[in-house]
Amino acid sequence: MSSGIYWGGSRVSTWQQPDSSWWDVVPWEINDAAGQMPGGGASGAGANGKFSMSKSEMEAVLKEATTLRDLIDEQLYRADALKLVKPPAQDPASVRYTEAALSTGNFYLGHLQLQSKYLGGLIGNLKKALGITTEQDENNADVAKKAGTLG
Known about the structure:
Blueprint: E1 5-7, E2 10-12, E3 28-30, E4 51-53, H1 55-79, H2 92-130, H3 135-150
Parallel strand pairs: 3-4
Antiparallel strand pairs: 1-2
Helix pairs in contact: 1-2
């Protein structure tokens, strides 16, 4: 198979991918325990069928993915102005050129949104594998504890 994204044996572009993420299907593990192969690496469809890395590798990937998503989200924020482009005049050439520019800008925004969503899935699974909880997770746990003691 050539490079690209495949779903159900067929090549699809990013906008055709289903909403369910393959990140949620593939198990993630930290392989720092004794007896496990050092060096990690993404085993993907390998013998174990999972992503397996050392804790330090996983933390490094998490840091890089978070930095990249922050950069993409900043680009998204700045690129939102592309939707506001107006033709300099109402002549046919200016109007058509502006319509083409708006279409291109919308594709660019959509691409950035897909990248941010993709990285969000990666970051979420890395945090889950590392046992990192967010403040919201902790707040939800506190609320659940309190609700359990009220009954």
